[in-house]
Amino acid sequence: MAVELRRAGLHLSGTALWLDAHRKSELSFVSHAHADHIARHERVIATAATLRFMQHRLGKVKGALPAPYNRPFELGPLVLELLPAGHVLGSAQLRVVLPDGTRVVYTGDLNLAATLTAEPAQIAECDVLVIESTYGRPKYAFPPREQTFDAIAAWCRTNLERGVTPILLAYPLGKSQETVKALTQRGLKLCAHTSIHSVCQIYGELGMPLEVRRYDGRIEPDEVGLFPPHIARAASLQRLKRATAVLTGWALDGPVAARRYGADIAFPVSDHADFPSLMRYARASGATEVITHHGFADELAEALRKEGFIARAVHRVLQLPLL
Question: Which CATH class is domain 145-267?
């Protein structure tokens, strides 16, 4: 068994290494700095960018072990290598070569689509693939990202022309920065909530400047507002003559997705891989065994088994067919 699911998260069997542990651990690889993937570990293996975002969220990071992409290094009897995951700036996958030569890849959150604000993901060759399955159902096949941002820009312009303030809801790290970049390229001006603006400033520190004004209690008539989803019902926004859109992969669930966030419309923007991309990754990795985790793990594992993989969700015991 390559990985185990424990209370603190995923653990690489027979080693001291945790994978995105969500509770304090002695040693954890952190794939990226979204809140559900970080904790105050004793030692952290991550990219320099991820460590910077962790510092922003948690304060000083204890025992930071920064690692660049595509440069293998030894950790006791293990050989580790970080590869870009395409999820947010600095996000990484981890390939571990065990003492017996078995190559285990943990993707963390993954996105294979081309983005404007994250390093392009690489498909890592391996023997055992531990892959996220947030959108692990066939119904989740996203339209081309350029097409979706064209539609968002058109929606924003239509509302601005009507004297209505367009409000976009997106998570502060990753999706918001992609949205700023995509919409400023399309000639729109953006005003972002402080939590988003501060992350945009860190992107600038890391060599990716973004053009966005910090929200100071007002939005100019020619601006698009960008806010985290939990701010959607804030009193300051309720007073505006506004239209609200949420940017989420769950938009493919239909109108219920917009209602879930208190929005008028949902656009299918995600920083996760869709079902076709997950299947493509598994095929291209060369893995003979696939372990799925998070989201629709059972459904993705079933789809992979139909293609001949030995596959299971991490919370299930592997059952081989009887000969």
Answer: alpha beta
